[in-house]
Amino acid sequence: MNQDQLKEQVGREAVKFVEDGMYLGLGTGSTVRYMVDALGERVANEHLNLVCVATSERTAQQAAELGITVRNLDDVDHLDLTIDGADEIDDNFQGIKGGGAAHLWEKIVAINSTKNMWIVDESKMVHKLGQFPLPLEVIPFGSTHVLKKLTDMGLHPTFRMTETGHVMTDSENYVIDLHLNEIDHPHELAAQLDGIVGVVEHGLFLDMVNTVIVGRSDGPEVLRARD
Ligand SMILES: O=C(CO)[C@H](O)[C@H](O)COP(=O)(O)O
User: Ligand 1 centre from 44 Cα, in Å?
Assistant: First the structure.
């Protein structure tokens, strides 16, 4: 099975956990895209009553086009479950997210969700975080000074760019990626990054996920991370 097939496999597996009446958070990314397609099929075929909150404009649009009810986070009082992708998950179920520049909204939705599930192909499972560049969402105003500070801290930052300029998030902020190779102490790094004025949010998602579904050639593996 290739990577796309594994992503589709976990996307389809994840929607089996969705129950009628749920308030559901929808993540962002290519794996989530398959999940939302599968969710749309269930909504259409089984007439499920769901209320969904999306973590990006992209996901909101896809879901709405499939006839899934999408509301703003501020218009719901709770979320039962959020299903999202991830860029890396380590042996302790700590994660890096933000490859799709959506980690700010993803983290806000995640912390307001009773349960969180991540769906990944097996290439995302690592022993130690850090091979994947760690994304930060930063306020454009003064961001070159934030970049310099991060450089001085030895964190090897680069702005995430397109051919035409800065990658912009849905909140119209920039993204800086930290090229770290290895993150020995994720909690300490998270605390350091939380203290930098101008950094809105980082892509370390620590102690957050309850269930991980890993796509493997011999079938999806469901891992329980925490209650
Ligand atoms: O954090 C994310 C977006 O900000 C995504 O969940 C993450 O990048 C995984 O994406 P994909 O499923 O396309 O590999």
Answer: 26
